[in-house]
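Q: I'm writing a short methods note and want an example of a predicted protein-small molecule complex. Could you take the sequence and the SMILES for fe (ii) ion and return the bound structure as tokens? Please keep the output block clean; save any remarks for afterwards.
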Amino acid sequence: MSAMCARMPLMENQNTCDRRHFMKIGALAATAAALPAGARAAAPAAEHGLADLPYAYDALEPSIDTKTMEIHHSRHHAAYVNNMKSALEGHAGLASLSLLALQSVISSVEDPSLQTTLRNNAGGHWNHEFFWNIMTPPDRSGSPGDALGTAIHDTFGGMEEFKKAFAAAGAGRFGSGWAWLIVRDGKLKVTSTPNQDNPLMTGIVPEEETGTPILGIDVWEHAYYLHYQNRRGDYMDAWWNVVDWASVSACYDSAVS
Ligand SMILES: [Fe+2]
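A: Understood, no commentary inside the block.
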């Protein structure tokens, strides 16, 4: 199991680096930056590089094909990382924040061009690192832990009803973006964001859609087009087979603790 969980920084502490709640539970594959998981989570965003995936590029077959995983990680995700690092040059205050803490202060960046660049690329970096770590090979997918399972049942009426709500959020996201399961005020909620926005971006996404992501799916065409072409729904259906429920459950437990 591997997980990269976030806890929503408090609004009143947006600008304090020491309020970051960036947890890594379980073993994480060796990172490109060669940092232990804890140090990596706490590292300044400017030093938070592209990590290796915690599995091989072909490990999510047949739900996600090998070529898509390779291009998605080594080109798309890598580009977000490189663009973020370039944008942070000359902005020591922002560059010193952790990648997680950076998400919640992007709305306060006064330069519109820099704000947009960070929104797209620091957002893209965090989103993809989270995405890789809530997936696992299909034989390890498992099922939600007791607390998360109960919360899903109480909130949505059952797992199938939850999956329908989540699929609707992904299918309803026009163009590129993400569907999320978040914890907000201790409750589960399904949301979606455009482009590389995420529920950690206070002041950018609607307040009622901010919270702690515990599950998210990339519905950009680059995540599925090689194999599924325009069939986003088929990709989302198959994706459930590679959700790492142990990681998602750990993120839930962390978010409500
Ligand atoms: Fe992506």
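A: Remarks, as requested: The beta strands are 2-6, 22-26, 177-184, 187-194, 212-218. The domain at 138-256 is CATH 3.55.40.20 (minor pseudopilin epsh fold).
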